[in-house]
UniProtKB/TrEMBL annotation:
Pfam families: SelO (PF02696)
Active site: 246 (proton acceptor)
HAMAP family membership: SelO
Protein name per UniProt: Protein nucleotidyltransferase YdiU
UniProt: Mg(2+) binding residues: 247, 256
Family of the protein in this entry: Belongs to the SELO family.
Top-rank taxon, per record: Bacteria
Organism: Paracoccus chinensis
Keywords in alphabetical order: ATP-binding, Magnesium, Manganese, Metal-binding, Nucleotide-binding, Nucleotidyltransferase, Transferase
Residues engaged in binding ATP: 88, 90-91, 111, 123-124, 174, 181, 256
């Protein structure tokens, strides 16, 4: 039989110390939930093979295909500001890497694939809820152009996962340009393992920043990509929810969709995660947290520099360069949302005025911006007078509505819709999940048959708290 996936496992070749060789734990009764045809084709994998018994055996973790070298990656991380010396893949294994027809390299990882040496007290499993949430949200993010890990497939396990109650188990097949995190660098830096730290930096440079000629340029690259990505989150009302350093990918991709959510009503202090009691990872805090995380990366990279102490000012300057890059990206993104192609600092007050008004009146974030395109934004304001005054000033700027239409999705994966899809999935009905994925991966089409998915939650429908995948 022809090889279904041509694995080429460069991370595994880094050698011992970077991971443990840990196969996925087989599951009782794999069942297919979804295969992402478009992504499979992009990777050069036959989607029909993924649906075959051998494909299902791979995505459930029952039998890795030939060429896979399952490993659990080691990493550390600052969680809510406190350092954990060892985290690592506790509920995931990297099956290996595939080089797509266009030459791009991708990790194929199973999440929820059973215990590993990094599981600590966890069971290594995922229940259906977080798997469906990550699938829908990451595929939406891709559809609107945000750098992100993606979902290749999802499967049920036929096993029960115990959280507060018994829940159906599931496995997500996740694809990323890599799963290397700020926390991966921390793992070696805090152990003083400079050789592996250097090997990791060289690997990341070759893989993600081929133009970088030094660890300092690598740092600058990560800072720039994170600033761009987080500006995109902000422009979608997205709250990652658990921006620990182990959940920040050095590629710049959004990773580890746990208690993440999109705001319905806009408020800058919005928090969803049940464990984020002090709002550390609130919507408005995300750029500052990114700087904090990148400062951790900077200190990890110092030992690789010719004169580590002398390099501190330059590394600091690079990390402190985040706000300028972020601010320019923010202006570009929010400018586009207003249909202003060349938005500059002079346009910031116009954007801020709208946001302030939205916060005061609890206007729906997505519907207000989309409403600028469709002419329905006024309906989002209980008291429309200030908005109409703003609108006159905005229209005087001659906005390009086609640009705004491309920057303002009609639909996001709203929290309550995700919840409804999960509730149905728990009952064995995946139709609402399939429909949600279809709708949010075509986010710019105004379609009457998806109007319910574009609507704000009714009273009583709103989901205000989200939980970590565990
Ligand atoms: P995260 O939720 O992504 O911030 O995960 C933090 C750490 O907890 C990572 O090392 C995970 O691998 C680990 N972890 C989370 N859930 C589980 C689980 N159910 N079993 C084992 N390890 C887990
Ligand atoms: Mg994580």
């Amino acid at each position: 039989m022809t090889q279904p996936i041509a694995f080429d496992n460069s991370y595994a070749r880094l050698g011992p110390g970077f991971y443990t060789r840990t196969p996925p734990t087989p599951v009782a009764q794999p069942g297919l939930i979804a295969v992402n045809d478009g992504l499979a084709q992009r990777l050069g994998i036959d989607p029909d093979w993924l649906r075959s018994p051998e494909g299902l055996a791979m995505i459930s973790g029952n039998k890795p295909p030939e060429g896979a070298e399952p490993i659990a990656q080691a990493y550390a991380g600052h969680q809510f500001g406190g350092l954990s010396l060892q985290l690592g893949d506790g509920r995931a294994v990297l099956l290996g890497e595939v080089v797509a027809p266009d030459g791009a390299r991708f990790d194929i990882q199973l999440k929820g694939s059973g215990p590993t040496p990094f599981s600590r007290r966890g069971d290594g499993r995922a229940w259906l809820g977080p798997v469906l949430r990550e699938y829908a949200v990451s595929e939406f993010m891709h559809a609107v152009g945000v750098p992100t890990t993606r979902a290749l497939a999802a499967a049920t396990t036929g096993e029960v996962v115990w959280r507060e109650s018994p829940l159906p188990g599931a496995v997500l097949t996740r694809v990323a340009s890599s799963h290397i995190r700020v926390g991966t660098f921390e793992f070696f830096a805090i152990r003083g393992d400079v050789d592996r730290l250097r090997a990791l930096a060289d690997h990341v440079i070759a893989r993600h920043y081929p133009d970088a000629t030094s660890p300092m340029e690598l740092l600058a690259g990560v800072v720039a990509r994170q600033a761009e990505t987080i500006a995109q989150w902000m422009a979608l009302g997205f709250i990652h929810g658990v921006m620990n350093t182990d959940n920040m990918a050095v590629s710049g991709e959004t990773i580890d969709y746990g208690p993440c959510a999109f705001m319905d009503a806009y408020h800058p202090d919005t928090v969803f995660s049940s464990i984020d009691r002090h709002g550390r990872y609130a919507w408005s805090q995300q750029p500052q947290v990114a700087v904090w995380n990148l400062a951790q990366l900077a200190s990890c990279l110092l030992p690789l520099m010719p004169d580590p102490e002398g390099a501190v000012p330059e590394a600091t300057r690079i990390v402190h360069g985040f706000p300028a890059i972020y601010q320019a990206a923010w202006l570009k993104r929010f400018g586009a949302k207003l249909g202003l192609p060349e938005a500059g600092a002079g346009d910031q007050p116009l954007i801020e005025r709208l946001l302030t008004m939205m916060a005061q009146q609890e206007a729906d974030f997505t519907r207000t911006f989309r409403g600028l395109v469709t002419g329905e934004a006024t309906a989002e304001f209980a008291d429309p007078a200030p908005f109409m005054e703003w609108q006159r000033d905005w229209q005087a700027r001659g906005p390009d509505l086609a640009l705004a239409a491309r920057a303002n999705p009609a639909r996001i994966p709203r929290n309550h819709r995700i919840q409804q899809a999960i509730d149905a999935g728990v009952q064995g009905d995946f139709a609402p999940f399939q429909r949600l994925v279809e709708a949010v991966t075509h986010p710019f089409e105004d379609r009457a048959d998806w109007a319910d998915l574009a609507a704000s939650p009714e009273q009583g429908e709103e989901v205000r708290v989200t939980y970590c995948g565990t």
